[in-house]
Protein backbone atom coordinates (compact mmCIF):
# COMPACT_ATOMS: atom_id res chain seq x y z
CA UNK A 1 0.00 0.00 0.00
CA UNK A 2 1.44 3.38 -0.97
CA UNK A 3 0.51 7.06 -1.23
CA UNK A 4 -0.89 8.98 -4.22
CA UNK A 5 2.43 9.55 -6.02
CA UNK A 6 3.51 5.98 -5.44
CA UNK A 7 0.07 4.95 -6.70
CA UNK A 8 0.27 6.75 -10.04
CA UNK A 9 3.84 5.55 -10.62
CA UNK A 10 3.29 2.10 -9.07
CA UNK A 11 6.64 2.33 -7.27
CA UNK A 12 4.82 0.20 -4.72
CA UNK A 13 1.77 -1.97 -5.22
CA UNK A 14 -1.47 -0.37 -4.09
CA UNK A 15 -3.86 -3.25 -3.49
CA UNK A 16 -4.31 -2.71 0.24
CA UNK A 17 -3.92 -5.55 2.72
CA UNK A 18 -5.56 -8.90 3.29
CA UNK A 19 -6.26 -10.47 6.70
CA UNK A 20 -7.02 -14.17 6.31
CA UNK A 21 -8.32 -16.66 8.84
CA UNK A 22 -8.96 -13.97 11.43
CA UNK A 23 -11.94 -15.09 13.50
CA UNK A 24 -12.59 -17.56 10.69
CA UNK A 25 -12.94 -14.73 8.17
CA UNK A 26 -11.01 -13.46 5.16
CA UNK A 27 -11.00 -9.65 4.95
CA UNK A 28 -9.60 -7.25 2.36
CA UNK A 29 -8.83 -3.79 3.75
CA UNK A 30 -8.58 -0.67 1.58
CA UNK A 31 -8.46 -2.29 -1.89
CA UNK A 32 -6.80 0.37 -3.98
CA UNK A 33 -5.74 0.07 -7.65
CA UNK A 34 -4.60 -3.44 -8.49
CA UNK A 35 -6.19 -5.24 -5.54
CA UNK A 36 -7.87 -7.85 -7.72
CA UNK A 37 -4.77 -8.61 -9.80
CA UNK A 38 -2.45 -8.66 -6.78
CA UNK A 39 -4.82 -10.97 -4.92
CA UNK A 40 -4.36 -13.62 -7.58
CA UNK A 41 -0.63 -12.88 -7.86
CA UNK A 42 -0.15 -13.69 -4.18
CA UNK A 43 -2.55 -16.66 -4.04
CA UNK A 44 -5.26 -14.84 -2.08
CA UNK A 45 -8.42 -15.83 -3.96
CA UNK A 46 -10.83 -12.85 -3.86
CA UNK A 47 -13.76 -15.24 -4.31
CA UNK A 48 -13.06 -16.50 -0.78
CA UNK A 49 -13.53 -13.11 0.86
CA UNK A 50 -16.02 -12.66 3.69
CA UNK A 51 -15.66 -8.89 4.03
CA UNK A 52 -14.34 -5.79 2.29
CA UNK A 53 -13.45 -2.79 4.45
CA UNK A 54 -12.79 0.72 3.14
CA UNK A 55 -11.53 3.42 5.48
CA UNK A 56 -12.23 6.56 3.47
CA UNK A 57 -13.05 8.03 0.08
CA UNK A 58 -9.64 8.44 -1.53
CA UNK A 59 -8.97 6.51 -4.72
CA UNK A 60 -5.85 4.75 -3.46
CA UNK A 61 -8.04 3.09 -0.82
CA UNK A 62 -11.29 2.21 -2.63
CA UNK A 63 -10.71 1.83 -6.38
CA UNK A 64 -11.03 -1.97 -6.53
CA UNK A 65 -13.70 -2.31 -3.83
CA UNK A 66 -16.57 -2.96 -6.22
CA UNK A 67 -14.72 -5.59 -8.24
CA UNK A 68 -13.81 -7.39 -5.00
CA UNK A 69 -17.46 -7.29 -4.01
CA UNK A 70 -18.24 -8.90 -7.36
CA UNK A 71 -15.68 -11.62 -6.60
CA UNK A 72 -17.06 -12.09 -3.06
CA UNK A 73 -20.60 -12.48 -4.43
CA UNK A 74 -19.49 -14.75 -7.29
CA UNK A 75 -20.20 -12.24 -10.03
CA UNK A 76 -23.16 -10.71 -8.18
CA UNK A 77 -25.04 -14.03 -8.33
CA UNK A 78 -25.11 -14.62 -4.56
CA UNK A 79 -26.03 -12.64 -1.50
CA UNK A 80 -22.77 -12.82 0.42
CA UNK A 81 -20.28 -11.01 2.60
CA UNK A 82 -20.09 -7.75 4.50
CA UNK A 83 -18.91 -4.33 3.36
CA UNK A 84 -17.74 -1.95 6.10
CA UNK A 85 -16.88 1.65 5.30
CA UNK A 86 -16.83 5.20 6.52
CA UNK A 87 -19.94 7.32 6.08
CA UNK A 88 -18.45 8.83 2.93
CA UNK A 89 -17.68 5.43 1.43
CA UNK A 90 -21.14 3.95 1.97
CA UNK A 91 -23.49 6.94 1.91
CA UNK A 92 -21.40 9.83 0.62
CA UNK A 93 -20.53 12.99 2.56
CA UNK A 94 -20.28 16.43 0.95
CA UNK A 95 -17.63 16.14 -1.79
CA UNK A 96 -16.59 12.60 -0.79
CA UNK A 97 -18.17 9.41 -2.14
CA UNK A 98 -20.18 7.36 -2.16
CA UNK A 99 -17.64 4.81 -3.38
CA UNK A 100 -19.90 1.76 -3.54
CA UNK A 101 -22.81 1.74 -5.97
CA UNK A 102 -26.33 0.82 -4.91
CA UNK A 103 -26.06 -2.11 -7.30
CA UNK A 104 -23.10 -3.54 -5.40
CA UNK A 105 -24.52 -2.72 -1.97
CA UNK A 106 -27.60 -4.84 -2.68
CA UNK A 107 -25.60 -8.08 -2.73
CA UNK A 108 -23.77 -7.67 0.60
CA UNK A 109 -24.54 -6.47 4.11
CA UNK A 110 -23.30 -2.87 4.21
CA UNK A 111 -22.32 -1.18 7.46
CA UNK A 112 -21.17 2.37 8.09
CA UNK A 113 -18.62 2.95 10.81
CA UNK A 114 -17.61 6.10 12.66
CA UNK A 115 -14.85 6.56 15.25
CA UNK A 116 -15.71 4.79 18.50
CA UNK A 117 -18.54 2.74 16.97
CA UNK A 118 -18.38 -1.05 16.82
CA UNK A 119 -19.92 -3.61 14.50
CA UNK A 120 -19.69 -7.38 14.39
CA UNK A 121 -18.70 -9.56 11.47
CA UNK A 122 -19.19 -13.13 12.59
CA UNK A 123 -16.89 -13.59 15.58
CA UNK A 124 -14.96 -10.38 14.89
CA UNK A 125 -15.62 -7.10 16.66
CA UNK A 126 -14.64 -4.12 14.52
CA UNK A 127 -14.24 -0.69 16.07
CA UNK A 128 -13.82 2.48 14.07
CA UNK A 129 -10.75 4.47 15.08
CA UNK A 130 -10.37 8.22 14.74
CA UNK A 131 -8.43 9.92 11.98
CA UNK A 132 -7.42 13.45 11.05
CA UNK A 133 -7.22 13.42 7.27
CA UNK A 134 -8.75 14.96 4.16
CA UNK A 135 -11.96 12.93 4.34
CA UNK A 136 -13.56 14.13 7.59
CA UNK A 137 -15.50 10.87 8.00
CA UNK A 138 -12.47 8.60 7.57
CA UNK A 139 -11.82 5.82 10.06
CA UNK A 140 -9.23 3.24 10.91
CA UNK A 141 -10.18 -0.29 11.95
CA UNK A 142 -9.48 -2.13 15.20
CA UNK A 143 -10.31 -5.82 14.78
CA UNK A 144 -10.63 -8.15 17.76
CA UNK A 145 -11.19 -11.91 17.56
CA UNK A 146 -10.73 -13.92 20.73
CA UNK A 147 -7.52 -12.80 22.42
CA UNK A 148 -5.96 -11.28 19.28
CA UNK A 149 -6.30 -7.65 18.21
CA UNK A 150 -5.09 -6.15 14.93
CA UNK A 151 -5.36 -2.37 14.60
CA UNK A 152 -4.99 -0.29 11.44
CA UNK A 153 -4.73 3.50 11.56
CA UNK A 154 -5.43 4.17 7.88
CA UNK A 155 -4.39 7.67 6.77
CA UNK A 156 -4.16 10.11 9.66
CA UNK A 157 -1.83 12.61 11.20
CA UNK A 158 -0.74 12.03 14.77
CA UNK A 159 -3.07 13.66 17.28
CA UNK A 160 -3.67 13.54 21.01
CA UNK A 161 -5.88 10.55 21.67
CA UNK A 162 -4.85 8.53 18.61
CA UNK A 163 -3.17 5.91 20.77
CA UNK A 164 -6.33 5.43 22.86
CA UNK A 165 -8.14 4.10 19.80
CA UNK A 166 -5.39 1.53 19.20
CA UNK A 167 -4.69 0.57 22.82
CA UNK A 168 -4.12 -3.17 23.44
CA UNK A 169 -3.30 -3.93 19.79
CA UNK A 170 -1.16 -7.03 19.32
CA UNK A 171 -0.37 -5.89 15.78
CA UNK A 172 -0.38 -2.19 14.89
CA UNK A 173 -0.42 -1.33 11.18
CA UNK A 174 -0.03 2.35 10.38
CA UNK A 175 0.18 4.57 7.33
CA UNK A 176 3.59 6.24 7.61
CA UNK A 177 4.13 8.48 4.63
CA UNK A 178 7.43 10.26 5.23
CA UNK A 179 10.76 9.51 6.93
CA UNK A 180 12.28 11.17 10.00
CA UNK A 181 10.47 14.28 11.20
CA UNK A 182 9.25 15.29 7.74
CA UNK A 183 5.70 16.19 8.77
CA UNK A 184 2.85 16.54 6.31
CA UNK A 185 -0.74 17.46 7.03
CA UNK A 186 -3.08 14.49 7.36
CA UNK A 187 -0.32 11.87 7.59
CA UNK A 188 2.31 10.48 9.92
CA UNK A 189 6.07 10.53 9.55
CA UNK A 190 8.46 8.13 11.29
CA UNK A 191 8.84 10.33 14.36
CA UNK A 192 5.06 10.45 14.75
CA UNK A 193 4.92 6.68 14.47
CA UNK A 194 7.57 6.32 17.17
CA UNK A 195 5.31 8.25 19.57
CA UNK A 196 2.33 6.09 18.64
CA UNK A 197 4.23 2.84 19.07
CA UNK A 198 5.59 3.94 22.45
CA UNK A 199 2.08 4.72 23.63
CA UNK A 200 0.32 1.63 22.23
CA UNK A 201 3.11 -0.90 22.93
CA UNK A 202 1.97 -3.54 20.39
CA UNK A 203 3.67 -6.89 19.95
CA UNK A 204 4.46 -5.98 16.34
CA UNK A 205 4.43 -2.63 14.52
CA UNK A 206 4.14 -2.39 10.73
CA UNK A 207 4.75 0.74 8.64
CA UNK A 208 2.57 0.72 5.52
CA UNK A 209 1.21 3.11 2.87
CA UNK A 210 4.72 4.44 2.33
CA UNK A 211 5.14 7.68 0.42
CA UNK A 212 7.69 8.35 -2.30
CA UNK A 213 10.08 10.11 0.08
CA UNK A 214 9.91 7.12 2.41
CA UNK A 215 10.37 4.63 -0.42
CA UNK A 216 13.48 6.49 -1.62
CA UNK A 217 14.87 6.89 1.90
CA UNK A 218 15.38 3.22 2.89
CA UNK A 219 12.14 2.34 4.72
CA UNK A 220 13.79 -0.72 6.31
CA UNK A 221 16.25 1.57 8.08
CA UNK A 222 13.38 3.79 9.21
CA UNK A 223 11.64 0.73 10.64
CA UNK A 224 14.88 -0.30 12.36
CA UNK A 225 15.09 3.15 13.94
CA UNK A 226 11.55 2.78 15.29
CA UNK A 227 12.51 -0.59 16.71
CA UNK A 228 15.71 0.74 18.29
CA UNK A 229 13.92 3.63 19.97
CA UNK A 230 10.81 1.76 21.13
CA UNK A 231 12.07 -1.77 21.69
CA UNK A 232 9.07 -3.01 19.65
CA UNK A 233 9.65 -5.25 16.66
CA UNK A 234 8.94 -3.05 13.63
CA UNK A 235 8.66 -3.84 9.93
CA UNK A 236 8.38 -1.71 6.81
CA UNK A 237 5.78 -3.32 4.55
CA UNK A 238 7.01 -4.82 1.30
CA UNK A 239 5.04 -5.87 -1.76
CA UNK A 240 3.68 -9.35 -1.10
CA UNK A 241 4.80 -9.42 2.54
CA UNK A 242 3.12 -12.18 4.54
CA UNK A 243 2.94 -12.31 8.33
CA UNK A 244 1.58 -15.40 10.07
CA UNK A 245 0.24 -15.32 13.62
CA UNK A 246 -1.04 -18.03 15.92
CA UNK A 247 -3.97 -17.52 18.27
CA UNK A 248 -1.75 -16.10 20.98
CA UNK A 249 -0.24 -13.52 18.67
CA UNK A 250 3.12 -15.26 18.27
CA UNK A 251 4.71 -14.40 14.93
CA UNK A 252 5.42 -17.75 13.33
CA UNK A 253 6.71 -16.64 9.96
CA UNK A 254 7.49 -13.36 8.26
CA UNK A 255 8.57 -13.16 4.66
TrEMBL record:
Top-rank taxon, per record: Archaea
Domain Metallo-beta-lactamase: 26-209
UniProt key word NADP: no
Alphabetic keyword roster: Hydrolase
GO molecular function: hydrolase activity
InterPro entries: Metallo-B-lactamas (IPR001279), RibonucZ/Hydroxyglut_hydro (IPR036866), UPF0173_UPF0282_UlaG_hydrolase (IPR050114)
Name this polypeptide is given: Predicted metal-dependent hydrolase
Organism: Methanothermobacter marburgensis (strain ATCC BAA-927 / DSM 2133 / JCM 14651 / NBRC 100331 / OCM 82 / Marburg)
